[in-house]
């Protein structure tokens, strides 16, 4: 399971994820220096550590390395949430408390995610691009495809989310 990135690791990975291309230590350094005073060797050490931990891969480009993210920020966030949830002695209560903390935007994002994931769990086809939300299941488009508590709610969460911590991401096997 991945552990949470430190502040500087997160600042570096944020740039690597946002730029979504191979980056050099110099590029990350110059961007970080707009916010804080930091040495080249510090950024180089952090990027080397991220490489050792499996968060980035690197390729030689002349006398420097170019670093590329191994997984997405979304996969990192999902793995952290999965790890925290799996440590709970009462997963259902933890989810209820988590849902209670969500903003309206977060609840909407959760509903969108559930519309994508739940049809795939039940074996029913999901909506195709451009198709109304309920068209694939025969449900009206203006009603949610699935409500909490229906028969698909007792599926294991790791399977529902495509569990990013199933060995495909950084920290796998550690």
Give a description of the structure.
The protein is mainly alpha-helical and 174 residues long. It is built from seven helices and two strands, in the order αααββαααα. It has a two-stranded antiparallel sheet with strand order 1-2. The model is unreliable at 131-169 (pLDDT under 50).
Brief characterization of the structure:
With 174 residues, this protein is mainly alpha-helical. Helices cover 47% and strands 7% of the residues.
Topology record:
Blueprint lengths: L6 H13 L5 H8 L7 H13 L3 E6 L2 E6 L3 H14 L4 H11 L2 H19 L34 H4 L14
Antiparallel strand pairs: 1-2
Helix pairs in contact: 1-3, 2-3
The percentage helix is 40-55%
Number of strands: 2
Number of DSSP helical runs: 7
Secondary-structure-based class equals: mainly alpha
Q: Order of strands across the widest beta sheet? A: 1-2
> Which band does the percent of strand residues land in?
5-15%
Order of helices and strands: HHHEEHHHH
Principal-axis shape equals elongated
For the largest beta-sheet, the strand count, sense and barrel status come to:
2 strands, antiparallel
- Work out the radius of gyration: 20 Å
Q: Runs with pLDDT <50, length 5+?
A: 131-169
Structure characteristics:
single chain; 174 residues; mainly alpha; two-stranded antiparallel sheet; 47% helix
């Amino acid at each position: 399971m991945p552990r949470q990135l430190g502040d500087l690791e997160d600042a570096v990975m944020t740039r690597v994820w946002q730029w979504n291309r191979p980056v050099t230590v110099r590029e990350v350094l110059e961007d970080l220096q707009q916010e804080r005073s930091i040495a080249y060797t510090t950024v180089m050490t952090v990027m080397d550590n991220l490489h050792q931990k499996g968060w980035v891969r690197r390729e030689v480009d002349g006398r420097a390395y170019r670093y590329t993210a191994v997984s997405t920020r979304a996969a990192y966030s999902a793995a952290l949430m999965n790890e925290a949830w799996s440590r709970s002695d009462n997963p259902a209560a933890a989810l209820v408390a988590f849902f209670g903390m969500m903003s309206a935007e977060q609840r909407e994002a959760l509903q969108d995610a559930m519309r994508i994931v739940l049809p795939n769990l039940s074996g029913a086809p999901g909506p195709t691009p451009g198709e109304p939300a309920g068209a694939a299941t025969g449900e009206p488009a203006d009603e949610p495809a699935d409500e909490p508590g229906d028969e698909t709610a007792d599926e294991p969460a790791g399977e529902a989310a495509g569990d990013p911590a199933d060995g495909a991401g950084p920290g796998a096997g550690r």
